[in-house]
């Protein structure tokens, strides 16, 4: 499991037709790394949502 380095707000859509939702990630919150790219991680939060988060906000 990876952890968030700091707390930060994050906006996302559950699908293309949905409205924007906001999630507040907490410092130390555990997330699951699903994929690694050059500057982002694809992570799954505890609610099961997927997010593309910049690498500087996640501690693998």
Report on the structure:
The chain has 60 residues and is mostly beta strands. The protein has no helices and seven strands. A hairpin with a 5-residue loop joins strand 5 and strand 6. The model has no long low-confidence stretch (mean pLDDT 95).
**Which strand order do you get reading across the main beta sheet?**
6-5-4-1-7
CATH topology: SH3 type barrels
Q: How many strand elements? A: 7
Q: What does the overall shape look like? A: globular
Number of domains: 1
Secondary structure class reads mainly beta
Q: Please bin the fraction of helical residues.
A: under 10%
Task: Just name the CATH architecture.
Answer: Roll
CATH class: Mainly Beta
User: Count of DSSP helices?
Assistant: 0
Question: How much of the polypeptide forms β-strand, as a percent range?
Answer: over 45%
Would you summarize the structure shown here?
The chain is mainly beta and 60 residues long. The chain is built from no helices and 7 strands.
What keyword list fits this structure?
60 residues, 53% strand, 5-stranded antiparallel sheet, SH3 type barrels, two-stranded antiparallel ribbon, mainly beta, globular
Topology:
Elements lengths: L1 E3 L3 E5 L8 E5 L4 E7 L3 E5 L5 E5 L3 E2 L1
Antiparallel strand pairs: 1-4, 1-7, 2-3, 4-5, 5-6
